[in-house]
Structure formats: C-alpha cells, structure tokens
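The instructor's notes for this session suggest beginning with a concrete chain rather than abstract definitions. Hand out the sequence below and ask the class to guess, before any prediction is shown, which regions might be ordered.
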Amino acid sequence: MRYGSILAAASKVFARKGQDDFSLAAVAREMKLHPVSLTYYFNKKEDLLTAVLLDAVERYEELLSIAQGAPTPPERLRKFIEAFFIARRRIAERGLPPLLDLTEFPERAEGQADVAQSSRQRAADHLAALLGDAEWPWMSAPRRALLSELTIGLLAWSDAWLWQYDPEDYPRAAAGLADLMLNGLSTEPFSFPEGQFADHPPGDTRDQLLAAATGLINQVGLRGASVDKIPARVGLTKGSLYHHLDSKDEIMAACAERTLDQVKDANLKASNLIDGIERVAMAMTTLASRQAKTGGEALLAPGTIWGEEGASAHRSRRVHLLRAVRSMSDVLLEGMRDGSIRQVDPNLAGHYLLSVAALARHASRSIKTSELGDDYLRPALQGFFID
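After discussion, reveal the predicted structure:
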C-alpha cells in the first residue's frame, strides 16, 4: 500500500460523499482494508482530507503548467482546456480519481476551509496570470480574475454535458468549449442592455424555501444542505419545510424545476427583440443579474444538478436541466438562422450559457450587478479576450 493509493481512494470518496460522510473508515472500505492500516500514514481524517485538498489543487497546477509555454493568452487558455480534457479522458479510461470541483472548494471542505481557500486561490491566481500579457493591456487584473473564476466553473461543471461524448471524443469537446470561450457567439459586436434587469418578484413560502435551498445547495452541495439549514436561511422552521416538500430528493427536483422556470421566464421577457443574439443577451442579463443579486438563489448550478449522486429523483432533476438547456438552445438556433449568431453546437452552447449565468454568483463578489453586462457577459458572449 502506498501513500498515492490512499490519496486516490480518498479523492474518490470525497468527490462521491462530500465532507460530512468522509472518514478513514469510508476510505478503508473503498480500498477493502481495515481502517487501522491507514493510520500509519494519517492519524485522523482531517489530516487525510487536507492531503486530498492539496493534491486536488496540485493536479490543476500541473495542467496550468502545461499551458504556461504557449506564446499568447488565448493560446494558453486553449492549451489549458485541452490539458483538462486530456486528463478527463485518462480518468474515464483508467478509472483514476476525479478532478475535484474547485468552484465551491472552501465551503464544501468546511473543516479545512483555510487550507482549501489558500490552495484554491493559488490555482485561480495562476490561471489569471496566464490570461495576461503586456501586449494585451485591456486584460486588466480584475477582468482576468473574473474570467479565471468563470473558466474554473465551466470546466468543473462539464459533467453536465460531457457524458454525451465517448472518452476518445473528449478532444472534440475541448475544441468546442474553447471555441465558445475564445470566439464567443455573435457574428458582430453588439451592445448589452443596460438598466433593464427583469427582477423575479418574491414568491410564496414554498418559493422562498426553494430559493434558500438553491443558494445553499450551490454553496455546500446537496449532502451539505441539511433540512435544518434550508429553512433557517429565511427564518422558518423545519416543520414549514416539510409542509411543502417531503424529502431532500423532492427539494432537489423542485429546485431544478424552478431553475427551468427562471430560464423560460427570461427567454419570454426577451422574445420581443429582433435578433437572436439580442434575445440571448437580454435573457442572459436577466438570469445573471438575478443570480448575482440573490447570492446564487435563482439558478441551481448545472454541476450540482448533474454531479450529486444517491438521490432517487436524479432523473427528474436532470430532465429539468436538459429542458433548460433546450430552451437556451432554441434561442441560439433562431440567432443562427437570422445570422446574428455563429454556427456553433447549440446543445454545448446552451450548457455554456446556463453555466455562465449560474456562475454570476461568483462575479458579484468583485463587480457590481450593474457592471455584469460589460465586464462579465460581454467577454462570455463575444470572446474572453475582446477589447
């Protein structure tokens, strides 16, 4: 038995179960060993969890190092995306431990939050540095930091659509995502709507509970979102939660359906605009502003909908996700027909847009909601490196 084998097994357990169910005993079961056999390397689970978190970030750092040698920021980003999906292919084909989701890394490793935050920030800063160059002065430090966070989220949540590809086709998936990030969607520059954010009015008690659940699940995952914490976010009791929703499975499915409703509502509000790209921009402005203003309570993260396991309602929530993506894809197809949107894979682009909107929660930490259009959505829809 080697140190690396324990780390590999522990990474699989953490990815599958989260921190609450992470233990030396769970890792030992994964390895078909007695827990005592692990104590030679790790005296307690906190030591092993720290090693897992540091190893997870180190694996990302290795991928970033591969991209370091490319001559320009766009080529570095493309190289990093390619390296990520090459790693994903090896994981799929060889049964290697997964690359952990870094989007909510500190929150999902609550007991080791300081270690998780510092190591994760190091990787995010490394990626942001790769996006800059003296010959690209408009790529300011704040903009690069914003796009670094967006990139980390887009890659982490690729599980929501990567299942449609065989591992040998992952390079094609990488090329498609890189094309969207580097070249955007529009055939010509356009202006983002300003001051037209279509707020979603507060709902009834059930909707308030679903909003609270959405925000908490996005932050700590389904396993970490306890039935005590969800109603506490809006000053209600566990009894009020169970009056409207019977189980965590039902909560998750209802949150996914609410996300679909948000997407359909945003698309409807943009339907009177002429060009497809204008409708996409308006809908994305609506969704991203709602997500930012509510601290992540508007849209359930695609990676969370797809990635959590062990729930009997998983099929229902995944269907809601795919319908939300289809709603975005339909608008994209209209834009391709009228010539305002490039010819892209509408399914992949739909997933891309939904993830961009959901990740606006992170953007709101560094910019005002009123700046989302120019500083966040414009690069996402017109190309990361647009001047």
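Then share the key points. The two ends are 53 Å apart (CA to CA). The mean pLDDT is 86.
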